[in-house]
Write a structure and sequence with these properties.
about 65% helix, about 450 residues, two-stranded antiparallel ribbon, globular
């Protein structure tokens, strides 16, 4: 695909848009940074327990593979263990890594969406993608480093789909390397987050639908089978709250499930559940239309690898919404709008609009291509202005952690006060004493 001829006015507009996106990145990171705190919070205490076992010689590195709720998170746990071992648990490593992961994911999506275009267009796409992935609307994914899983899972999913799609293109050399890269990403994806279990079957589906060499199909199928099988070795599903599970045997339960999935995918808009449901429903309608167009293109053997990769990433987002809904739809659409889920709402829309833009531009349809860019700009704007309640809640959380930090540093430990950082406050008392004894985390200074 060759880039369109660029007039000077267009270059100026693209340059200005790039500057705006860079400013948005600076604002998004600065907005999140004011709420960073060192004291472990909620799920982070599980990693403190893991490090304690390692430090006291009662555990092993296999603990990194142990399930956490429904997930296996060896990469997240390893990052924390290194932070504790090298930086005394002050989050010097994992906090920046969280931001770098989100930025890297946004850049990767932007570069895939703009593949084949000029340097200026690719720079704008990469910067705009990064800006969207650090928007205030997904504050949890910018503040809580335990949520490294979302950026890691998104990157591995996109890498799996992109390298698999690349294998369908004629290439004189480097095919073995790309097969190895695709197989590695497929194998690792389930161990970044539980929803990464959707990556292996989707990548294998791509390998058999696209004109991919037989060797690649065998390698990807083997990697997928071994990865999924390895995930479930010694795995026991965690107990779930029955009130969260949807009753899919009833019309009401099916409607609740559908509303949950739509709200999950539309959670970019945090102003009201009805808004999120409407945005998600519109996205699902566009997704169905995109699938139809791609099926027609597949029959004529005209599949663009970048478009295929983005379409599969959008499919991955839909699969994530469905998987989450199967366990939590009974909690209602507000739960689907949890800030930690918004990364997948952003990936859904970024992939969808990237596909639409590439297809319209390739066909020479200027108005539809511009419409995709306008919709993207509107949704990014919505992501940056979600309402004051995010800042209010984060300020309250940070103030509670600061108060508890000062209390603990002063040598006062009131178990009931620990509820602000962990609901089962009594269970983490030994972990707090471990941090104090080893001079880790808030006691390291």
């Amino acid at each position: 695909m060759s880039p369109a001829r660029t007039i000077p006015a267009t270059r100026v507009c693209v340059a200005l848009a790039t500057v705006v996106a860079l400013a948005a990145i600076a604002y998004g990171v600065a907005f999140a940074a004011q709420f960073w705190r060192v004291l472990p919070y909620y799920d982070q205490w599980a990693v403190v327990a893991t490090y304690r076992r390692l430090a006291e010689g009662t555990g092993s590195l296999l603990d990194l593979l142990a399930p956490h709720n429904e997930h296996r998170l060896p990469f997240t746990k390893l990052a924390f263990v290194v932070d504790f071992a090298v930086f005394r648990g002050r989050l010097v490593l994992v906090q920046p890594l969280l931001i770098v992961g989100q930025l890297g994911l946004g850049v990767a999506v932007g570069l895939v969406a703009s593949r084949g275009y000029g340097a200026q267009a690719r720079l704008l796409a990469a910067v705009a993608g990064a800006a969207w992935l650090v928007a205030p609307v997904q504050i949890d994914n910018l503040v809580d480093p335990f949520l490294l899983q979302w950026g890691a899972c998104g990157l591995l999913a996109l890498a799996s789909f992109y390298w698999t799609a690349q294998l369908a293109e004629p290439m004189p050399d480097g095919r073995a390397t790309r097969i190895a890269l695709a197989a590695a990403a497929v194998a690792l994806a389930p161990f970044s987050s539980a929803n990464g279990l959707a990556v292996p079957p989707l990548a294998v589906f791509m390998a058999f639908v696209l004109p991919v060499p037989r060797a690649a199909r065998i390698a990807l199928t083997a990697a997928a089978a071994l990865s999924v099988a390895g995930f479930f070795v010694g795995y026991a599903p965690p107990p779930s709250d029955p009130a969260y599970r949807p009753v899919l045997s009833s019309p009401e339960g099916l409607l609740a499930f559908a509303r949950y999935v739509a709200a999950f995918l539309g959670s970019i808009d945090q102003h009201h559940p009805d808004n999120a449901i409407a945005v998600g429903a519109a996205g699902l309608a566009a997704y169905v239309a995109l699938v139809g167009v791609l099926l027609l293109a597949l029959r004529s053997k005209r599949i663009d690898p970048s478009t295929a990769a983005l379409a599969m990433l959008a499919t991955m987002a839909v699969a994530t919404a469905v998987m989450t809904g199967l366990g939590r739809a009974g909690a209602g659409p507000l739960q689907a709008m949890s800030w930690r889920y918004v990364t997948w709402s952003v990936l859904f829309w970024a992939s969808l609009l990237g596909c639409g833009w590439r297809q319209a531009a390739a066909a020479g349809h200027t108005i539809p291509a511009v419409a995709n860019l306008v919709i993207a700009a509107i949704l990014v704007g919505v992501s940056y202005f979600p309402g004051r309640f995010i800042a209010i809640r984060e300020k309250e959380r940070a103030a509670a952690i600061d108060s508890l930090t000062a209390e603990l540093r002063a040598g006062h430990l009131v178990p009931e006060h620990l509820s602000s950082v962990y609901p089962g406050s009594m269970s983490i008392v030994p972990l707090v004493e471990f941090l104090r004894a080893r001079r880790l985390s808030i006691f390291a200074d």
